[in-house]
Structure formats: structure tokens, C-alpha cells
Model the fold of this input.
Amino acid sequence: MTDAKMRGVRERKSRTRKKGVSLLLNFPYLIWLSLFVIVPMFIVAAYAFTDASGAFTLDNFRKLSVYRENIFDSFVYALIATAVTLILAYPFAYFMTKRSAAAQRVMMMLVMLPMWMNLLILTYSIMNIIETNGIVNNLLVAMGMEKVQMINTPGAVVFGMVYNYFPYMVLPLYSVLSKIDPALLEAAADLGSGGPSRFRRVILPLSMPGIISGITMVFVPSVSTFYISQKLGGTSVNMIGDVIESLVNRVSTRNLGAMLSLVLMVVILICIMIMNRFSDEEGGIML
Amino acid sequence: MKKIFSILILCALLLSIVSCGERNDTIDESLLRGEYTKDLEGTTLKVYNWGEYISDGAEGSLDVNAAFEKLTGIKVVYSTYDDNETMYSDLVSGANYYDIIIPSDYMIERLIREERLEQVDVRELSNYQFIDEQYKNLYFDPDNAYSVPYNVGMVGLIYNTTMVEGTIDSWEALWDEKYSGNILTFNNPRDAFALAQLILDQDLNTTDPADWDAAAALLKEQSPVLQARVMDEVFNKMEGGNAAMAPYYAGDYLLMKENNPDLAFAYPKEGVNIFCDSVCVPKGCQNYDAAVLYMNFLMEPEIALANAEALCYASPNTEVVSHEDYTYKDNKILYPSEEDMPKVQWFHDMDAKTVEYYETLWVDVLNS
Amino acid sequence: MKIFGKIYLGVIFAVMYLPLLVMVFFSFNASNSTATFTGFSLHWYEEMLRDSAAMDALKNTLLLAVVSTVIATILGTLAAVGIFGMRNKWFKTGVLSVSNVPMMNPDIVTGVSLMLLFAFVGRMLGAVESLGFFTILIAHVTFSLPYVVLNVLPKLMQTDPHLAEAAQDLGSTPIQAFFRVVLPSISSGVVSGALMAFTLSIDDFVISHYTSGSFTTLPLLIYTMTKKRVTPEMYAVCSCIFLSVLVLLLIMNLSQIRQAKKMSRISVIGKK
Done:
């Protein structure tokens, strides 16, 4: 047997072995997914395609146009919030990796800790800070300045969303950035690439998996954000998450709500697919 | 891995801090009017109530559930909801059973129509005599066959006297451009529509689409002057002086006033929405006898007094209203005299078609 | 650059913790308002310790968060390794999309659909009560899983796939190779995944409400208060959680720094 042949046999062997292992590892997960994700998904679909009496109908989908503004707004806000979160979190995660190992561990916990507090209480506290007669405005008045309208503006909604999802961006970014070999950067510097090009050519491509994960974990749930926009945005924005919340909660309008969330799911899936296509071309990463 | 370990340590630490102090569960048994035995000792009673809707021992008050447990030996399993519709969807899913629920009027109407409630013979309830006649035979339970009143209340207009000139006597103030940017309203369609419907002198339970269209048009006119549509955050906004006026419940106004004495209250001349939350036994209950005992217990003057103090809504119990120690005895807002009594309208259960119709209009209103 | 980094971290942390400071501040309020401060008092902390319902809810919350985190982390890490090893691109995309569904759906849709499923199964089994600790546990694991997978996958992509193969070629079993080679290289992803799972579990309300039955957690207790108002007592409970975590972090950190210093001293002596 020639060397090449032997290598071929070995590779085939390792591939089948790998396939077996990967299936084995996935088995409990796949069972879990089908029981508690796919079956409930069918329940939602069943609601979306029926009326309150359980008869098949497409009527729910005809009412979609009523909510197009809310769906559109939700995607716009989710996009803005995701972009702002990424821009703020990237340098944050990068600077984190520059600290000592002990400090990094503590900071990682500190990033997550605010989210352990109750969302409702945190939102109330943010309201206390940015209210018309809130803490910031009182400080401004004390310093002889004009009050600024912060609450009940689109900006407040974006702030609330960024605040809420920030840790979900920082953590994946941090975990990939911390693994980039400093020797690589030195090598790049030795080869004459300056700061910006080093970032673009070395750091950014290497942190791509973390960026994609972070974007997914922020964008996907933020489309269906509820509560935050309602409390901080006043009448300035009405997100689809709040609409679905009230529709699904009431048994008689549940079918309508199920339809909306089904549509939302499909649109988000399309978004993720487009994003994957992009990242696929960029660096051959598949998520 | 270290982090996970430290989380475990933390949890252990927190649990060790937790020392379960005793709450006030002793009542003077000589003051009890009904008869309570320990016949059902060891059984369980599942109660499903609104959150913060019972005297729970906070601030030295009586812990009603603990007192019932001590008196009868029945274990009370207590859970809470924040919305009639949430309670309803929980109930109809069949995922759970409850022995006691405390829904509002229109929800009771629906539950009775759908035969989801057990009949209760009020003649067996010795404390039913204390319920005020005006809260008996209400529209949703005309024969008093399913429910006993727990709490009643009315919506009114709360306003900040430092931000509003003069007194207010009409819902139209919520449309006044003078207060643009300082006006709050309800963040749910039924209550928000009700305000417009009262101004338009409509029946709150109209099924005529034209009526709802007219109300929606009026609500759209209101959108530019609104600061926000609120529910529970109304407390913070009104107490902090961040808004000039808001419609909310009379009892809650009394709580807000404790923290902001500038607040005033009015029952607008167009009339107001009135509600009554009543105690019911849902079908599928597993401990009917204990449930009936609990119903009777809630109507005990001493118990009803503790609840009335804690909830700050009006009590349907005559013994409470005339009780010497009652903080809100003769309170003009909770218990207006006959000539001060505003026109009232009840919410009825709406058919699915109308609900869908006004829900669709509501989205339009929100986006206007 | 170093100074700028420090300032940047500081500013972001300050903004992140400002609402928490407001929370701690109002937990000391003498009145029941969370908007106007009327005076300093420890009143709400006394109330908190006396409130057995709140304390039970706190215990339930922590128990649920720990158990669901452990299950979700193990299941999710294995799944990520398995997904990473998948050859069929379409199958891989499919599994990943499905696993993201709980993240995509508004909470209430996940919650209600799970409740309907549990109710159906419960009825089939003839149970009067189909909801409880185990159903809420299943729900929490379900919505935490995609976060664990999404944290572990990028780390797997960074590791050299030949390492595990090399280990196996050198005679270790696949399991040994996983624990000795793969796991250490993805550990930071596993930890962030676990951290996120814990975070999501500890503050979930909507899904919990529909799947919990009479198993009450702290967020459930707080959200259902909104018929009336959320009392500063709940602020006190959250402040206690916040402060105890901070203290714990501080203690851990101090000992670590001390250790690091000792180590460096030893190495200095060694050099001499």
C-alpha cells in the first residue's frame, strides 16, 4: 500500500469515527430541540392558521398589513440597537483583554451582574434617572442649565435596549479576542502593518466568529423586545413585541398573535441567512 | 469553572442569610363571626389572586393566609397573576387547577357563561350578611350563585395641582393642549377606549363598529398631547411630578397622595368605570369545602378590614365601612355620598368579533 | 492608549451601574415610593427578612437558575461540539436555526406554546396539575440552550481541529481527547455560556409565568405586583443580591491578586 492510499484510508476512518461521535453528542440535544422547540413551533403554526373555533383560515394573515408599521419599527430599532451595542462593546471587550487575568475574570462577572437584577426594577431606575424631573435633569438645573427631554424619546428606547443587551455582545467578543495570539500581532507589526491595517487584516477577521455570535444574540431577541420600549419610549414607538404580548395573552386574539410571531420568525430567519451568506464570503465562517 | 463554583457558593451564602421570620398570623378568635374547625387539617387549598392583593403581613399587618392556615390547619398554596386575561388563559389551558380565584366582573360573566365556575350556596356562608346590598345581585352574577364580592373601585382623574389651573371635572382635560406633553393615559385598549366612550356618551359595551370608530377617532386626536401610555409606572410618574394628570383607580390615588400631597382627584362628570373583583371557585377545584371556608373567612369583618387597609380599595363589607379603626372610614373618595356618587358603567364581557375590532383600531391609535 | 482604555472601561461601567445605585438608594427609602425619597430607613430590609413569601421565591429562583444552568451548559456544550463536527452543511444550518427559535420568539409565544404542550401531555397522563418545578426547568433550559451553543461555537472555530485528532492518534479515546484537549481550549466560551444561561434564568418572567404552576420565583412575584405597585422591599431584595455578589467578587479577587503577587515574588527569588 502506498503512503497516499494509507492516508486516504486513515482519513476515511477518522471521518466516520467523527461522524459517529458528532451524532452521539447531538443526540440528546436533537431530542430536546424536537420536543421543546419544534413541537411548540407547530402549536404556534396551528394557531396562526386557524380561527378561534379551530377551523382552518388564512384570515389572520390578511390582517398582517395592520401591523406592518410595528414590525418595520421593531426591525429598525433592533438594527440600530445592535449596531450601537457592537460599536460600544468591541472596544470594551478589547480593552478588557489588556487587563490582568484576575481583573479580566472580575470584569466578566461585573458585566453580567446588572442583568441579574430585575428588569422591571432596572427599568424603573433608568426612568428615575432620565425622567423630566429625574436625577440628570435635577443635576442640570442645579448647575444652572436647561432641562433636557430624554424619556419618551426614540433615543431612550435605543438606550434601554443597548443597556439590556450589552453583556450578550461583550462576552462572545471577549472570549474570541482574548484568544488571539499576541505573537500574531507582533508578526504583523514586524511585517510593517500599522495599527489600523493590523486591526482590519488581523484582529477583525480573527474575531469574526465572536462578532457573528454577538450580533445574533443581540439582534434576534431585540426584534421581539417588549416592556422596555413601552416604559422608556412613551408614545414615540410601538414595538411588535408589545403588540404580540397583549394579543397572545388574551385567548380570543391568540391566533392573531401566533400569526404575527410566525411572520416575525420567518423574517428573522431570512435576516440570519443573509448574514451567514455575508460571513461565509468574508472568512468562510458558518454559523 | 471557578466562576460557576463561586456562583454555587454565593447561592449557598444567600440561602444561609435567609432567616424566615414569623409574620403576624394571630387573630383574636373571639372577634370571628363564622365557625372554623380543624376538620380539613392537612388538606391543601390553591389560591390564585392578583399580585399585592391581600394583606400579607407587611408592615405589621395581618398575614391573612397564615392566619387561615393557623385557624384551620389547611395549607394555602398561593400564587399570583397581574391580569384577568392571564388568569383566564392559565385556567382554560387545563395545565393547572385552582380552588379559589378572584377575577373581575366581566371575567366572571365569561366564566359563568362558559360554565367554568362551581356554584356556591351563599346561605352556607354565615358572613355573607355583611356584604353591602348594593354589591349583591350584580349584573355578572344576578342570583349570587357563583361569587362573593372582595373589592370594589372606580376610575377617576388624578392631577397635580401645581401643574393644573383650577379644578378638573371632565375627561376632556386629558385632551387639553394646554397640558400637552404632561398627560398620561391607560396603556390597554379597553380602559383607554372607555375614556373616549364616556366623553362621547356611549355605552362602554357597545357592539356597534361605528361607535368604536368614533371613539378611535377621538383617541387619535389625543395622541399628540400625550406624554405616555402607562400602567403601573403611573405611581412613579405622578408621585415624582413628571406628569400633570392621569386616569387611574381611586384607591391608588390615596396611596400616591401619601408621597405627593400636591395630587388631587376628581370623578369626571361624564361618568366613570366601576369594577368589582369577586371570590369564585373554578371548576376542577380539588378542595371545595376548604374553598367555601376560605370564602367565608375573607368576609370576616376583621379579615376584610385588614385587606381593606392593605389594598386601599373600597370594601363591600358593611362591618368594615363602619369600623371604628378603619383608616378610610367616611373617606369621600372611596365612599362618596349618594349626591357625590358619579355616574358609573360596568365593563361587560365582549364578543370575540368586537374585541378583534377594537384591538385593530387600537394599533391604529398607537401608530397615530 | 492604556489610559484611554481605562477611561473607556470606567465610563461604560459607570453607566451600567448607575441604575443599580439608584436601586440601592431607593431600597433605603422610608416611604413606599420608588420615585420620591422621603428619608433614610432600614425598614424595607426588616420587611424583607420577615416576608417568607419573598424569601421562598428567592430560594426557588436560585435553585432553578443553578439547576437549569448546569443542564443547559452540559447539553449545549456537547451540542456545539457535535454541530461543529457536522459535515452536512444544510443539516448544520437547519439545526442551528431551530436552536435559535426560542431566542427569536417573543417570550410570551415560547411560554404559551410550552404551556399548551405541557397541559396536553399532563392531560394524557391524567394529572390534575401538569405544571411545576420540572416544567419550568425544561422551559428555562430550552431558552438558555441557544446562548450556550452560540458562546461555545466561536471558540471551537478558533481551536485547531487537528489537536483532538492528534490526541486520538496518540492513543487517547475520543472522550479523553474531549476532556483533555477540546474542553480546556473552549472553556472560556463554556463559562460565558453558563453565565448567560444563569443570567437569563434568574430574571425571566413571562415564560416562567406560563410554565411554573404554583412554583413562585422572585421575578414572578415582582411582576405580578404591578396591579398595585412594586414596593421598595423588592429593591431591598435585589440590593442584597447585588451587594453579596460584589463582596464575593472582592474577596475572590483579593486572594487571587495576593496569590499572583506571591508567585511573582517567588519567581524573583528564584532568579536571584
